Amino acid sequence: PDVIIEAQFDDNDAEHGQDHLQDTLTDDIKKLSLDTGEKGKAAGVTGVHRAKQDNGPKVNDPRLLLDEFLQRTAKVVYILEKKHSRAATGFIKLLADRNSELFKRCAMFSPVDHRVPRVYVPLADCPPDFVTKPETYSQMLFICRIVDWKEDSSFASGQLCKSLGQAGEIEPESEGILTEYGVDFSDFSPEVLECLPQNLPWVISPEELAKRRDLR
Predict the structure, then answer these.
(1) What total of structural domains would you count in the chain?
(2) Would you say residue 169 lies in a domain?
(3) How far apart are the C-alpha atoms of 128 and 191, rounded to whole Å?
(4) Burial call 177-193: b when 16+ CB within 10 Å, e when fewer
(5) Can you tell me the distance from the alpha carbon of 204 to that of 216, in angstroms, rounded to the nearest whole number?
(6) Range of 174's domain?
(7) pLDDT tens, position by position, 31-51
(8) Does the model's pTM come out above 0.70?
(9) Residue by residue, what is the 3-state secondary structure of 22-50?
(10) Is 171 domain-assigned?
(11) What does the alpha-carbon distance between residue 185 and residue 178 come to, in Å, rounded to a whole number?
């Protein structure tokens, strides 16, 4: 049920022109009319039984089917906006095949969110002692950003952005979530801080409080 087969039309239709296509449609309609007439003659004997079996028209040419019997199909032609940040939190580990050429160049990044694919990351982005001491980083969270995914590859390609810290700690986990969803958590600029009251501690005056609805 997950596979949609599109209707395939004979190239002969294009070669013989519109007249040939019209003749084909006319012949198919005549066949349908004949089939209907024969069924009508036998209705006195088997009409009720056939009505239970025939759930829809038996037509070989999809061009003659009604819309209710057709499965509409479409394909993506352009991506207007990429909603995902392409950043993910996860762990790095060595590739399983130590004898491959890829083992000398890349490591495997496994995202915490299983909806995100696993990613090949360059060893140059990993810590210097990662190859010799991979167990040291088995519980270390990293941020990886996907940059490409080739059609002939089972895994995406990406770059390690930074190390967050030990998994399970509040700050690394929070920073990872904010980065994944593209939330800017950097410090406020001096221009923004100047908009705040400078005389501290600051409190709401009774006059101002009287004009406000208290939602505390």
Answers:
(1) 1
(2) yes
(3) 39
(4) eebbeeeeeeeeeeeee
(5) 13
(6) 87-181
(7) 655 555 555 555 554 444 554
(8) no
(9) HHHHHHHHHHHHHHHHHHHHCHHHHHHHH
(10) yes
(11) 7
Distance (Å, whole) CA 150 – CA 41: 61
Query: Other C-beta atoms within 10 Å of 156: how many?
Result: 21
Is 114 inside a domain boundary? yes
156 domain residue, yes or no: yes
Share of the chain above pLDDT 90, in %: 43
The CATH number of residue 109's host domain is 2.40.50.700
For the segment 172-206, what is each residue's pLDDT rounded down to a tens digit?
Answer: 999 999 999 889 888 999 999 998 888 888 888 89
Closest CA to 147 of 161, 157, 132: 157
> Distance (Å, rounded) from C-alpha 145 to C-alpha 174?
17
Measured between alpha carbons, how far is 39 from 46 in angstroms, rounded to an integer? 9
